[in-house]
């Protein structure tokens, strides 16, 4: 049983290249000084803030109520930025290149990671055809359960009843927030504020949509746990592993962008806000890879869930949306989940 977990905001992970090692979920590495604990805390807080800022920043990019650039352009540029940052890190010596021949054979497994992430990103688009946005937002929280399932099966971790209850609370918090955590002052309809902009849309989900959603949740959990497994098993610097992953990511998204048919050019419609979206997402991707290598997929789930609070506060401040009782209930559930999962037993 995973009974000796400690809070991710109070523990620093093991060193790179230590195999599977001890992650945050296993109790971390004891006896490390406060500077490393502080860096780990700062990294998680920054990642939470960047996740939460993503949707409000996208909303600030809108022109006449629409995103003026191709979504595939933003994804491709984000992957390219991550790739360049990793290459720069290796070139300037921030992370040492491994001795001996280049470990190119160890790059191949990351192709599957890139394929899984690419499939998931495209499934999100197709899902909107078979269900309304509110239903998608609520049901997509099932990926928390699928991630926990693969985490136990693939990494051979067992969650205690207390930890399982904490993850159920995370799912409930996400569903609660998606069902009505924010509201446009001029809109009395339930669900996300954007859902009412074009008039009421009835709640609905087709059988095909439900099957695709289950597939989406399974791929989401598998991609996260599979990447964590690769990161921890390979005795390679994190920057080099990221270089492998994002090389495949760039190639995949370049093909998807080129095959997407006619549309705006790669940089057409980009503004300062759009550039900030790309940069923040790239930096957050690098932070998340560190969480996956030194923490766990479960840590990532808590970061994403806590980012809902940041998202709501920024939406209220920048977009003048109102916080509802559902938001405060979701915040309470997230706090309880963190206490249950990482608190002393």
UniProtKB/TrEMBL annotation:
Localization per record: Golgi apparatus membrane
Entry membrane topology: Multi-pass membrane protein
Keywords: Membrane, Sugar transport, Transmembrane, Transmembrane helix, Transport
Transmembrane segments: 40-63, 75-97, 109-127, 165-183, 203-226, 238-258, 270-289, 301-319, 325-342
Alphabetized SUPFAM superfamilies for the sequence: Multidrug resistance efflux transporter EmrE (SSF103481)
Recorded GO CC terms: Golgi membrane
InterPro entries associated with the record: EmrE-like (IPR037185), Nuc_sug_transpt (IPR007271)
UniProt cross-references to Pfam families, sorted A to Z: Nuc_sug_transp (PF04142)
Any GO MF annotation of the entry: pyrimidine nucleotide-sugar transmembrane transporter activity
Family: Belongs to the nucleotide-sugar transporter family. SLC35A subfamily.
Protein name, per record: Probable UDP-sugar transporter protein SLC35A4
Organism: Mustela putorius furo (European domestic ferret)
This protein's encoding gene: SLC35A4
